Amino acid sequence: MIGFIGLGIMGSRMAENLLDKGYDLIVHNRTKEKALHLLEKGAKWAHSPKEVAEQADIVFTMLANTKAVEAVALGEHGLLHNFGR
Ligand SMILES: NC(=O)c1ccc[n+]([C@@H]2O[C@H](COP(=O)([O-])OP(=O)(O)OC[C@H]3O[C@@H](n4cnc5c(N)ncnc54)[C@H](OP(=O)(O)O)[C@@H]3O)[C@@H](O)[C@H]2O)c1
Predict the structure, then answer these.
(1) pTM of this prediction?
(2) Number of domains in the chain
């Protein structure tokens, strides 16, 4: 299972390419609406970056800046809380 966090201009298209190639995808984005077209195509929704880490074997992030990366990685339900379980 591939995880993808950050579904803006770049990330949403990269994630869609992975889905179109047949990969299983679990996605998270701060604004859920931007994930809806991917969920319709079969991606699974994660409520937090932590939930992505719990279920994915590899995780891509495509975020705006360092502040966004810090929030996603180190926030209360951040990615790194469960990485390398
Ligand atoms: N677009 C391009 O043509 C292009 C070209 C080369 C390089 N890049 C680089 O690629 C990266 C992504 O660009 P983009 O165009 O995809 O940007 P974007 O459309 O603005 O998307 C930014 C993503 O970061 C998330 N984000 C921002 N602040 C956050 C925070 N505090 N906590 C959690 N998530 C946060 C946004 O979530 P929300 O959806 O909730 O706002 C969104 O998923 C940037 O580093 C950019 O410099 C972009």
Answers:
(1) 0.96
(2) 1
